[in-house]
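Q: I have two molecules that I believe assemble together. Could you output structure tokens for the complex as a whole instead of separate predictions?
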Amino acid sequence: MQTLENPLREGLRMSRNPDPCIVVIFGASGDLTKRKLVPALYNLSRENLLPASFSVVGTARTEMTHDAFRSGMKESVQEFSEAGGDAAGWDSFAAGMFYVATDPSKPETYDQMKVLLQQIDKDRGTAGNRLFYLSTPPNLYSEIIRMLGEKGMNRPAEGNWIRIIIEKPFGRDLESARYLNAEVLKVFHEDQVYRIDHYLGKETVQNIMVLRFANRIFEPLWNNRYIDHVQITSAESIGVENRGGYYEQAGALRDMIQNHMLQTLTLIAMEPPVAMDANAVRDEKTKVIRAIRDIHLEDVPWYTVRGQYAAGSVGGKKVPGYRQENGVNPQSKTETFAAIKFSIDNWRWADVPFYVRSGKRLPKRVTEVAIQFRRVPHLLFKKDTGPMEPNQLIVRIQPDEGVSLKFGSKLPGQAIQIRPVSMDFQYGTSFGKRSPEAYERLLLDALLGDSTLYARGDQVELSWELVMPILEYWRNSTDEIPQYESGTWGPKEAEDLIERDGRKWRKP
Amino acid sequence: MSAELTGSVDVAKIEKELRELWKQMAHPTTSIGENAVTRACVLNLVICSPGETSDSSVSQVIGDVSVHHPARTMVLLPGSEGPLSAWVTAQCHFAAGQRKQVCCEQIVVRAGGSEVKQLSSFVLPLLVPDVPVFLWWRGGLNQHVEFMRELIDASHRAIFDSQAFNDPWHDLKELGNLLRLHRADTAFSDLNWARLSMWRAAIAECFDIPELLSWLPRIEKVVIETSPGAQPLLLTAWLASRLKWRYTGKAPDQLNFFSRQPAFVVMQPGQGDSGIEAVRFSFRSEPSVQVAISKAAEGTHLRRVITMGDKSMERALMIPSQGTSVLLSEQLDIPGRVPLYEESLDYISSL
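A: Yes, here they are, computed for all two components at once.
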């Protein structure tokens, strides 16, 4: 990293542009590269947010020329980038794109990559800085990391940096997560490692911290004296589509709850950090995970529900059940729905349950956090008021990103009649401008060396530790997995989970 | 929907007219009222166009800006002929993907002769409380000076456009004086400074390269190809203040500076008439090192070429939209001061 400051950079939109560098994408022939990574880098380039000297090197087992890679990525950008691919902008971006085939079982291919990277440094001034992105199937991570270590591509020269982004899933259980962490840390320092959770790059997920810590009014209420419970919902209306093979190995708990939803929960529950730097924020998030009460094996049936979608109707269309999907075992016991009641054992959250649910083929696509406040201690307006609804603060993560506050208001008229009203803030109407895609934000942060929005190794292992008893119980259970009709809000057992506490699920 | 106020116009009448307007719009039998209507206001935008007789020159800009910044907009037309008159309008648009309309209020006030003196006492009570006030002054700095200063006093940010200055050297100094008078309470910004952002970013980016950064103190000559106007002076002031150059004097089309060694900024006439077209840097004792940034012929990109010996690095940098709506919208995004702009104005004042 340069030690001199550039005085001309001050006051510009980006007070610090990333250092010159090369992004090396492993798995460059894959879907994620085409749909998300290269379009995100291109969008950043169009916004002039990339460094002065920047290159992308794609790598995979397939042999390909530089031009063929550029041509393929141009099609991706035209399809998946909001900006499309204007000629001059694309030509300038593509001039920095290169390709080299590598195979972790063939060390000489990594020598070839090393030579290419050094040549790019010389020709394009990328200064020896590297961001490796592992976008391959997870079973290749260890080999690639080991090979980078063997070839000395893990330790930066003096004044340079090398970072590595690892895509989720980070392990498929505690043992594999620990193994992967150990393998990574044999080769890289923890501060070089960026474990991506793309939910954390979403504008509204980041807004949770702003809402809580840039506004004085919420913090006094943000505890068990005022909050009754929290519901975190991630609902999809689609099924597994053509990813049945992958989903059979994953399920809702691994796919969504262990990572995205637990990360969201930590943002809601964390204490204010002492600073907005990566470790201060992640320390507070880790403390939340540590404080979540363990769900022991024998308690799994009481605190968790799983389900699997059956045939039904979604959005006016008939859809098949999970077991009829391509790539899915007709006797599959993989859950497409999971609901869990978490308890956080600390002063702030004692006796405030966090109900977390995620599922496919639910009635609509919505991800939200609903904070329900306690009811008024004494109801003054009893007669003619109708049922009093408690206040709710809803943070909508997708779609219609925004925040709304529900409170009671008097209807105009002689009598006192109270109806709930919503005070809404929506990103779309209040700011009217494009929010950056999650991957744009996350890639830029990694280029800038800011790991605040990335998961730390200890967080990942603790998250797995928390859900292991649930996975184990479900794996060994001989009970038939509850079915729910597609287009409904999950199995009846999910209703029971919350209703026996005297509460109800929101219908977002 | 709009309503013109006739007879004597006062603040209460305008507020009443606005309430009527909202009632009509929310009524289900009006074509607008069929869909739910949301009144939105995150700021006050006061646009002052001295000498103009209608809001037609800014109506498109107001419509564009209100999509991103729903506001109560007041268009003031001091110096028009005729008695004090006003009309109120609502600007509505559908929020993306919604059936709901988002509507903002617009008040146009025309005043001439001695009524201009009373205009601020008429306008200021109409500002929506608890949201910031942005003033866009579209006139010269010597027009309705007292009224202008009263509006600046009431504003969180005063926005000018030095592109319209006839005598940039004099007018920018005058703007600097105005800034000093109001600095404590009002931030200043300039649409022309915003037009320079892409040049400043492109220049700054060149010197992010570690080798070039070490050569910053060795800049010997900067050539700016430009049409006449305030932009080259603003860019020069920015460079000089950032690099801590001391101004030593001027020659025709050249400004002289001194840091550890002399440095010169030379203005050369460009081909077009839309401000700066190219900026080139050369370095003392390094003839093989050149930095050149130029507008591409089609006007969509800047072309940046860095030559270091036999190595040449080229890059195309997108030119963001320079439309007035976009530039004004960006100013409304800025929460605080623009220290670099103020620093540049202060530098020009000292020339």
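A: One point stands out. The mean pLDDT of chain A is 90.
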